[in-house]
Structure formats: C-alpha cells, structure tokens
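Pasting as-is:
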Amino acid sequence: MSRGRTSAWAGQFYPADSIKLEALIANYLADKSGLQTGPVLGLIAPHAGFEFSGQTAASAYRQIASKKFDTIIVLAPSHAEAFPGVSIFSGDYYETPLGRISVDHQLAGLVQEGNEIIHVSEFGHRTDGHRAEHSLEVQLPFLQVVLDDFEILPIVFHDYSVAVCQHLGLSLSRALREKKCLIVASSDLYHGYSYKECMEIDTTTIKSIEADAPESFLEAIQDQVAQACGAGPIAALQFAARAMGNYHTRCIDRANSADITGQYSGWTVGYASFVVAKDS
C-alpha cells in the first residue's frame, strides 16, 4: 500500500479548493515578461503564504512553463524539526489539492549512494506530532500548474555547513547526469522589524547569491551580513550548478511583505526569485 504526505497547509498558506488554487496560480503566471531562454538547471523561490510571496514565486515558475523534466528536486529548509544530515522523503507521494505527485525512489537511491549524510526518512516531512514543514509543500502547486507528468524528490535539511551543502550538491550533480531534472531551492530572505534594513540586507543577499560563490554566501549568512532561511538549499543548488558547469544565478524578481500589505511597521519578510541557467 502506498504511503504519502497529505497537505498540511492548504487553506492557510494557499487555497484548499483546487479550482480556486489553480486559478490563483494561473493569474500569478499571466505576466510573460522576462523569460529565460537558455537551459534552466534550477530555481530559487520564496515560500510564504501565497498572498505575500505568490507573485514573486510565479516569476520563477513561469521560466519553466514550456519545459519538460522527468523529476523536480525540491530542496527546503526545516524550520522546526532538528535532525542530522539531509532527509529525502521515504514515502511514495506528496499530495496537494491539485493531486498527488509521486516520489522518484530511483533518483533517491542515486543521490543517497555513497553519501552517509543523506538519509531516506520521514524527518522534516512529517505532519503528525510536529509543526509540519511548509517550505517544501507550498512549492508543489506551482509545479503542478506549470508542468505535466513529473515526479519529485523532496529533500529537507537544516545543517547549512559548507560540508553538508557541498556533499548534497555534488550528489545531486551526479543524479542530474542520469536524468533530466530541475532543482528548486525554497527560501525567503530577510526576517525582522525594519523595512529599511529589509531593503538593505536583501540587496546584499541577492548580490551574494548572484555571485555564484556558495562558500562565500554561507559565510555571509553565518556572519549575518545576508539573510535567507533556505541558505542551505540555495548553496546546495549552486554547488550542483558549479559541478555541472557554466550555469549562472540571476535574480528575476524581489518583493517584501511591507510593500505588499502597505504595513511598514512591524514584522517584515523579504522575498526574491532567481533562475539558475546557462546564458542564452
């Protein structure tokens, strides 16, 4: 009997009604400007509630609307559950209101092979007894709208050391040579109480990501010069891109919760979307 992960955040981060959800995403995707024409290896997209970051995330996902991939590798941070290493979901599917997406167990084996820090488990993916992780789940409806006939490899972790991110990135690059895959790194940017600080730190973070130097990016995160809750997923994607050769990261959209809501005092979160691609 198949075993999967059902939606934990439908009705909160995004609509639980499938028709409303698909229509909302289609509306976000309607702007066709700024499309990347070169081969795309990865995307970086935010993971807040759709009312806050959905439009920014759509800027990333419209880059792949006409493309074909066998498997989408989704790299996401674990905000609440701590566990060693990297966790690939051991179940058979993730489910959203738009349906089930099968897990690519063959690719999981390729990524895990010979790497002791990568585990096939339920850590970071569970919905019972823990605060269910949202950062991976909220990427899936976008994928379901823009793509047909694909599997996923859901990966969650919270150890953002250079060693872990590099090992994961190199393992992903080996798998990418076996199958046509896309990597999605899930991350928001600044979190804090200052709009001015949000604008300044997000600019620094974006420049650091666009430099395609994951070691320096992780150092900037450690020194709190840059902020990204999904710094590990971003770095792992960039290590994989480096191993694949001649890919570059480009920011294609940015926003923040203050500009979206018009509330410039109080808690503020920054968002940005990026494409990792070869020059066209």
